[in-house]
Amino acid sequence: MKAEDSIVAVIIIIYGLIFLISIAALIMITIARYKLFEKAGIEGWKAIIPYYNMYILTVEIGGKDILTFVLHFIPFANIYAAIVTSIAVAKSYGKDEGYGIGLAFLGIVFYPMLGFSKSTKFVGPGGVPPVQTSANSLVNSWQNNDQNVPPTV
C-alpha cells in the first residue's frame, strides 16, 4: 500500500465522520423544532418539511412578515434574516435577545434546550401574547351568530 493511498483513506474517513456528525446534528435540531412546534400549538410534522418549517418558524411562531421569510433565500441577506428570526423565536418562548443569538449561531445547543425544557412555554408570536376577547363582547357575539343580522342593543 502506497503512502498516497493511506492519505486518501484517512481523508475519506474524516469526511465520512463529518457527514455523520452533520446528519446527527440535523436530526437533533429537527426533533427539537418538532417539540417547539407542538408547544406553539402547531402540528409537529410541519417541522420535518423543508422550507415550510422555516415559513412556520418565521411567520407563525416568530411573528415576522413574508419579506423576512423571503430574505432567507437571498445570499448575505439570509444571515440577517436568520438572526432576526432566531431572536423573534426566542422572544416567542419568553427568552431574551441573547438567547436568540444563540439560536442563530449555536442552534445544535440552543434548539434542544428550548424544545426539551419543561419550563419553557409559548408566549405568542414574537413574544406578544394573543389578544383575549371577552365571551360577552358585542363584536364576538355578532361574529359567532349564524345569521347576517347585526345584534340589537
> Largest sheet, described in full?
none
Q: How many domains comprise the coordinates? A: 1
Order of helices and strands: HHHHHHH
Supply the number of helical segments: 7
- What's the total count of β strands? 0
Structural class: mainly alpha
**Helical amount among residues, as a percent range?**
55-70%
Strand content: under 5%
Radius of gyration: 22 Å
Overall geometric form: elongated
Average predicted confidence as pLDDT: 87
State the end-to-end CA separation: 94 Å
Low-pLDDT runs of 5+ residues are none
Molecular structure report:
The chain contains 7 helices and no strands. It has 153 residues and is mainly α. It has one domain (3-127). Helix 4 crosses helix 5 (97-105). The N and C termini lie far apart (94 Å).
What descriptive keywords fit this protein?
single chain, 7 helices, mainly alpha, 153 residues
Brief digest:
It is built from seven helices and no strands. By secondary structure, the protein is mainly α. Helix 1 (3-39) runs parallel beside helix 6, helix 4 (77-92) packs across helix 5 and helix 5 crosses helix 6 (107-116).
Element layout with pairings:
Blueprint lengths: L2 H37 L12 H10 L4 H6 L5 H16 L4 H9 L1 H10 L21 H6 L10
